[in-house]
Amino acid sequence: MESCPLIKNILLLDSEGKRVAVKYYSDDWPTLASKLAFEKSVFTKTQKTNARTEVLQGFFDAVALLLRSNVEKRTALENLDLILLCLDEIVDGGIILDTEASLIAGRVETHGGDGGAPFSEQTISQALASAREHLTRSLLK
Fold this sequence. Notes:
The chain is 52% helix and 11% strand.
């Protein structure tokens, strides 16, 4: 019997190794200090390589579609709700659900329709309410 591949974490770090968005699906790093040390270690090891796997490529491409190819730190922070929804659509509890960028971006945009307006036209409180509703639905499944 084959086991399902698991993800322990997803890190989105800026060009200086600082957190933009992170999600941990494992208790291997129980404290904030251990998580920050791990993130620094990953950044140091991958700084001069193109460390993209299928999951990371799907994540990057989905975010690029949603942000209209403007994947910069400021834009990412302004659209953090979309990025977190992308992570939720890719991985659930460490299990890889999907890596196809267009499908992921489409589902994230669909969730934006729950609030009645696209994410780009919602206020921060509306976007957070939509994200909270999505999280609640994913927890109740």
